[in-house]
Amino acid sequence: VMSYGFAVCQPMIGVDDSAIGRYFSDGLGPIMGRFGYFLLNKICPVAEYTPFITDFIGVLFLMLGATLWCLVWEKAMGRKLSVMAATCFSCVMISCPMISEVFIYYLHNGVCMCYCLSALLVLYFMEAFEEKGRARVHKFIIALAILWISNSFVEAFTIVFLMAIVMSWVLQCISKVRKITLKAVISEGLTAGGLLAVSIVLRTITIE
After folding, report:
1. Alpha carbons 69 and 53: distance in angstroms, whole number
2. How far apart are CA 29 and CA 138, in angstroms?
3. What are the CB-based long-range contacts (under 8 Å, 24+) for 16-23?
4. Can you tell me the distance from the alpha carbon of 131 to that of 121, in angstroms, rounded to the nearest whole number?
5. I want to staple 14 with a disulfide (CB 3.0 to 4.6 A). Which of 50, 86, 105, 115 is the partner?
6. What are the residues whose beta carbons fall under 8 Å from the beta carbon of 18, sequence distance 6 or more?
């Protein structure tokens, strides 16, 4: 957290920081397929604030995202994480160079917010298989909406979603929460693929 405080407070800008208005206001974001922050700017004019403010809020979202991902792993293992385990995971997560690069080289594009959204997405996806009937459908619809929104910011979070499902299977096997059968893998894998396909279609329609 202290390292992010240092990075965010530095008086440096990237090549895209100087053209932030083109992404957030002029419509370059939607042309790239990333309409999330363009719509966000219509609701809350984040492009009018200084880079420090948006980056600072981004760090707060990143910290919240680490907490939510701890909840994901707790659900997968069927027990609470120890303070040491949660602390170690959170430190590794917020120290990822791919995340820090967002703050140093170009404008904050919703990456940290998407870590929160992707954690919620995985939680709803896992909970959907514990429900039946309309409750299951409602969970999947919410998961689809979250996936669509996160992809509207950064499309790479589809990989985060898929890897989280695989990691949840591994943790469930290690913790013996349930037996992961081939049928379960195929069922959940096809469902995840279906959600991704529908979200891509929705994203394409929205861009058009």
Report:
1. 24
2. 30
3. 16/106, 16/107, 17/51, 17/106, 17/107, 20/47, 20/107, 21/47, 23/47, 23/107, 23/109
4. 16
5. 105
6. none
Q: What does the pLDDT profile of the chain (208 residues) look like in tens digits?
A: 666 666 666 666 666 666 777 777 777 777 777 778 777 777 777 767 666 777 777 778 888 998 999 999 999 998 888 899 998 888 888 777 556 666 665 556 678 888 899 999 999 999 999 888 899 999 999 999 999 988 888 888 888 899 999 999 998 888 888 888 888 899 999 999 999 999 988 888 887 7
For residue 39, what are the contacts with CB-CB under 8 A and spacing of at least 6? Answer: 152
Tell me the torsion sign for CA atoms 190, 195, 199, 201.
positive
Q: For residues 187 and 74, is the Cβ–Cβ distance under 8 A?
A: no
DSSP annotation of 34: -
